[in-house]
Amino acid sequence: VHDFGVTPEGTPYMVMDYVPGKTLQDVLSDHGQLDLETVLDIFIQCADGLAHAHEKGVLHRDIKPSNIVLIQEKNIGPGSIRILDFGIAKINANSAQTQELTRTGMVIGSPLYMSPEQSIGKRMDWRTDIYSLGCVLYECLCGMPPFQGDTVIETLMMHQTETPRSLREASLGREFPKRLEDLVSAMMEKNFEDRVNSMTIVHHELVEIKDQLKNPGKIQKFQKLEKLAAAPAAIKSEAGSRWLSMPVLIAFGAIAAGLLTYFMWMLLSPAPQPIKKLAQVDASFATPGEEVASYDQRVKRGIAESKMRGIDSVSVDNVEFSQSQYDLLAKEKWIRELFIVDCQRLTGFGLDGILANPIETLSLHESDVNDGVLSAIARSKTLRKLDISKCRKTTEEGLVTIARMKNLHSLNMQGVPVTDRVIEELIASNDKFLYLNLSLNTAINDDSMRLVSRHNAEFGLDVSYTSVTDAGVKYMGKSCVYLGLVGNPKITDASLEHIVKNCPKMRVLQLPGMSITPKGIMRLTQLKELVQVDLGAVRLAEVERRRIRAAFSAKKVKLSGI
Predict the structure, then answer these.
(1) Greatest CA separation found in the chain?
(2) Which pLDDT score, from 0 to 100, does residue 281 have?
(3) Rounded to whole angstroms, how far apart are CA atoms 348 and 327?
(4) What are the tens digits of pLDDT across the range 46-101?
């Protein structure tokens, strides 16, 4: 930043370098897979630049194709690459300019390229950038990211648990040097302790691989060569001290709530049904990048990707809807699951055409949803799962219309202004629902729990970050099999005792951010059907931690957070 200030009219401004050229995202959109020589030229410079930043104690934390600019596409040489957008970068606490450049309490980064530790708000170091760069390198070689789920949460879970396909498999048979395969694999290790030790090593290996291609007789297996380059000095000196970062408890609890919400959502879903695959995508679907793509192209791309994968689920995000986009989706009669995320200008009339098809799952997460849209949803005869999380423009009347739907099995109203009247209508009208999410709403209290407890069939309930206390939990009985209580500090061991005595079928408990003790936690081992407990960042002595882990392991209960 060369200069900044405020104009006489009151408009803030910054003066920065003008960087001409194309982003790597644009190049990938135009060409798909890149040739190996071009990839090596690009990433040798990227690794060199990031190694320099790491030596100065700076982590980027948002490495992705749209943040890498090619000043020239051909004859890429020194100085041809720029790494942009250090907007969420972090400077080492030992630096003279210690500063956290993002809001606390947030999981930051881009899900397609986010390391496992970053996605759950854990402490990050230089190896977080190594993982992200490995994901981008993988995409350039294979034409697709290593992990891409249908939703953000699914993608984050894949980074946590799944192993990427080999470069050869993902690129549909392209051959790569064994040393490059090994390097990419080592950059993307789940445990950062097992990852390549520094960006300097990455740079060295890429240079060596390029040299090997020019001199085929020179063969050397890739190893994690700690002797080549130790951890960056400015960062290594920080090994024993604490980074400036977001509050881990809040971030971990929030992402855990999202992951377990997704777990319940998927648990209640039928398996995606196969449909006729497209042999090839029409070239007109190709886009030069999301930033300049038309809304029609975004919808077409979502449809085409689902056909290529042979699934009946379509995702569309960040679209300002008009009749054209509604018509594109309405004519695809095979769609059973539709995810419309962060979209604007939704109308009931437009949705009527889509919901005339046998849609079973609809997600409108964080989209522009009003009462007219809710009325159209209520007219659906086939809908079983509905997600209107963070759709804050809804009113009580509109939500009552949804609550009266008799065939809904799953309803996610996270962050929506739900009232007790809405809950009362839901319980009175629907004896089939299996999962209800009322989290992120301080209006949900102990009286709300009393109303929910009238439901007789087995169900899951998420009331994380609400005003529920021990008095509310006491209304829960044998019908409750999943309970999310994240971020409710007024819930204590008394609630755990009640759950043990009165909720014998409880299978999943989500408990970060509560005022519970080791004694209360140990009581949960008496629940015979319990399969998973998330405790979050509970402060425990090491002896207690080991004792709790051993007790839950003996009961074959998955325990996370400690």
Answers:
(1) 76
(2) 35
(3) 13
(4) 998 998 888 888 888 889 998 999 987 666 666 678 888 775 555 443 333 322 33
DSSP reduced 3-state for 310 = coil
Instruction: State CA 475 to chain mean position distance.
Output: 33
Q: What is the DSSP string of 413-466?
A: -TTS---HHHHHHHHHH-S---EEE--SBTT--HHHHHHHTT--S-EEEE-TTB
Distances (CA, A) of 353 to 381, 384, 394, 524: 13, 18, 21, 49
On whether the CB atoms of residues 444 and 422 are closer than 8 A, the answer is no
For residue 274, the model assigns a pLDDT of: 46
283 vs 79, 186, 288, 304, 325, CA distance in Å?
33, 35, 12, 11, 19
CB burial of 160-180 (b: ≥16 within 10 Å; e: otherwise) equals beeebeebeebbeeeebbebb
**What SS3 state is found at 300?**
helix
Q: Are 338 and 377 a contacting pair, CB within 8 Å?
A: no
Q: Is the dihedral of CA 64, 70, 76, 79 positive or negative?
A: negative
Q: How far apart are CA 544 and CA 547, in angstroms?
A: 5
The sign one gets for the Cα dihedral 298, 299, 302, 303 is negative
Question: In one letter, which amino acid is 562?
Answer: I
Q: What are 306-320's pLDDT values in tens digits?
A: 888 788 999 998 888
- Tally the C-alpha atoms within 13 A of residue 246's C-alpha that lie toward its C-beta: 26
Q: What is the pLDDT of residue 260?
A: 55
Residue type, 273: Q
Q: Which residues contact 204 (CB under 8 A, 6 or more apart)?
A: 225, 228, 229
Residues 6 or more apart in contact with residue 75 via CB below 8 angstroms: none
Question: What pLDDT is recorded for position 109?
Answer: 61
Find out whether 503 and 478 touch, Cβ atoms under 8 Å: yes
Q: Measured between alpha carbons, how far is 418 from 426 in angstroms, rounded to an integer?
A: 11
pTM above 0.85?
Answer: no
Tokens of 98: 């210690």
Instruction: State how far the alpha carbon of 58 is from the alpha carbons of 91, 101, 114, 172, in Å.
Output: 5, 11, 17, 37
Cβ–Cβ under 8 Å, residues 409 and 268? yes
Give just the sign of the alpha carbon dihedral 228, 230, 231, 232. negative
Given a cut of 60, whether residue 254 has pLDDT beyond it is: no
- State how beta strands 68-70 and 81-83 pair: antiparallel
Judge contact between 106 and 251, C-beta under 8 A.
yes
Residue 1 CB neighbours (<10 A): 7
Give dist(CA 121, CA 247) in Å, integer.
8
Give residue-wise pLDDT tens across range 425-470. 999 998 888 999 999 999 999 999 999 999 989 999 999 999 999 9
User: Which tokens go with 189?
Assistant: 């290790």
